[in-house]
Design the sequence.
């Protein structure tokens, strides 16, 4: 139930020696058509990796035949040489696919990388990996590809969303990401595939709408990556043309499923926290307030300690400027896992009624009493394991 | 070398049973004149504690005779009852001082509280503490007052800055704050005293200028408090009227000294990190870039692991919007403790040359090559002890 679930795709995942662990680290997803529509949403970080710069350019025409992804190195902050490495990787994939009978130009190969920043990729290993990946391409290769893009992920993340009412088309997907999860986008790579017949504009609109309310609302640690990439490939192999709304909903559902899986596997987390802000003056206001709470290290550490510390929620809410989110501080209500711990900006039900020790999910519900808009941001608690993984990651 | 170092002040610190530890928890600083000038800078958090609302109002006329401070309870998010508690505290201090021969109105008593949010203060204990504090007032009571405002601080923070060139006036001060340190202001209470003869406008301007470049540039954990208060009291007891510039510089030096002490004692920290951004297009741009780096949990966890992870510096720099801080990502230089680990957005000197294991101070120097403005933000690393202290604090 992954990128090879829709018709018209082959994929593979191989070990090329980029990871010191020897695990799979090069993935390839190939769209065999008949259509080769592509769209991508990329990190808004101004310090972006070479593959992001490449992919942004390569996807502009709305066409792509393949996506090559490597873990074991982000190829970010690697200068002109790093960009040349990405360019060369795309050329190597194109030549290998063409040699295998699938005529492909380098400009139709999208590239994604993930791993440490500031280190060049070992190109000899990567070339060999690409050759092996082309040879291993299979119609059931999706699970291998999903394994090969993992970094600190503990499980592979895949999804498959059928079209509405038993339609003959569907959306498949895979993603990686466990740390550096923050908006615009989370630190993640994601490839979605569909056998629906759609044009590039429709694919792009569906993907942008989907990421805005899914991946962009995961904020594991407030850190925006240099490499985030979400790609949608459409093969048209089902022969079915869904409506724009049908496509958008299937893509959104696939992104939402993968985003929830990212949160569940965030580095070192012991709780998944959903911060819902309701009765805001606008959706943007709701997002801003939820985002402020999702970035409070104090609140996140309290949740790790199973402490429903609503005072830390309110102190984070209060940092949002009035022009961004109008509200009356003396009207704020907060419920945690259904217990109304704060009422009208003051003490509500006893916090002892909230049992976080036996809950993985923490639902924080903030009522601004300032309108009727709503949004939810997902984050995680701040744990010893988060500190451990991120202080030891590079060593 | 504290609030009672300048002439015209008495202070005290007593144990009133607000802290379960039985340690000192009520402090009093009294300005005996002949002048009773006061200024205050207060948290910009929209969810602010009752004492902040009180002090904002009480200091408006530029006059105050006393500051009463309690640890062991923030009196934040406590509703109208919490505000009544603060009002009553000020009245009680005024009555006790008047009874002791120092005619004082409640409106000339500033109030500060620190501790847990969302819990009412035990007023009977506090009243008794105020009575004891008035009885204990002494011309050498500054050190006791500094002890009584501590929460998770491990050491008391005090300062004393003489006027220029052996002048007869000086600035003394005390502060508390160890967690929830972030701009506008850090989670902290600070009382400064001076025996200079100044008017309220000059005192206010000096205090605002000083906090802008000192306390506002400490960002221990990105969390803004509900209770931050910095107060300056001027007695005029020296009979000397310094120039505005002389006063401003002495107040700035006192704030800078206390701010550095706060960083050095931040909860669970093993490194103090100074992030200097130079050659920015404006001071605001430099602050925005430095602030973004200071809030990167990933970079701060790397520093805890003694890893000079400049890729995480760059990925944080890249999150600042271009309209806030123009720069070319391919021109960025980063040095860590003097080693140029990143040059022109790419790999510089080997990161192994940076020895963080034996350094408490980590100096991150970011050159934007976009102008000639500069700013420094101080922060700390993200450690197991930070997580521990903040997950166990309320329990």
Sequence:
């Amino acid at each position: 139930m992954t990128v090879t679930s829709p018709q018209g795709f082959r994929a593979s995942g191989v070990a090329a020696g980029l990871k010191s662990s020897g695990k799979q680290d090069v993935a390839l997803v190939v769209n065999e058509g008949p259509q080769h529509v592509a769209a991508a949403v990329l990190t808004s970080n101004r310090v972006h990796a070479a593959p992001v710069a490449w992919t942004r350019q390569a996807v502009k025409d709305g066409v792509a035949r393949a996506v090559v992804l490597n873990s074991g190195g982000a190829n970010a902050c690697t200068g002109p040489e790093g960009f040349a490495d990405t360019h060369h990787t795309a050329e190597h994939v194109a030549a290998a696919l063409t040699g295998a009978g699938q005529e492909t130009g380098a400009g139709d190969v999208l590239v994604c990388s993930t791993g440490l920043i500031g280190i060049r990729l070992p190109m000899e290993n990567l070339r060999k990996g690409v050759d092996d990946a082309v040879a291993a391409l299979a119609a059931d290769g999706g699970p291998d590809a999903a394994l090969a893009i993992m970094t600190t992920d503990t499980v592979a993340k895949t999804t498959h969303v059928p079209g509405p009412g038993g339609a003959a088309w569907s959306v498949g997907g895979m993603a990686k990401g466990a740390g550096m999860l923050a908006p615009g986008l989370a630190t993640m790579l994601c490839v979605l595939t569909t056998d629906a017949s759609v044009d590039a504009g429709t694919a792009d609109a569906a993907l942008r709408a989907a990421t805005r309310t899914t991946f962009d609302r995961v904020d594991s640690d407030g850190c925006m990556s240099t490499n985030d990439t979400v790609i949608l490939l459409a093969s048209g192999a089902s022969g079915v043309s869904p409506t724009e709304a049908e496509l958008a909903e299937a893509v959104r559902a696939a992104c939402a499923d993968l985003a929830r899986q990212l949160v569940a596997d965030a580095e070192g987390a012991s709780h998944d926290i959903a911060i819902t802000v309701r009765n805001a003056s606008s959706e943007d206001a709701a997002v801003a307030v939820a985002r402020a709470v999702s970035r409070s290290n104090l609140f996140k550490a309290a949740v790790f300690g199973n402490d429903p510390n609503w005072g830390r929620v309110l102190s984070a809410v209060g940092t949002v400027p009035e022009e961004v989110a109008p509200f009356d501080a003396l009207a704020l209500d907060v419920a945690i896992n259904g217990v109304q711990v704060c009422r009208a900006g003051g003490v509500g039900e006893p916090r002892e009624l909230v049992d976080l020790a036996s809950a993985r999910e923490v639902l924080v519900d903030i009522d601004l009493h300032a309108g009727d808009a709503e949004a939810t941001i997902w984050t995680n608690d701040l744990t010893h394991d988060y500190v451990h993984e991120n202080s030891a990651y590079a060593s």
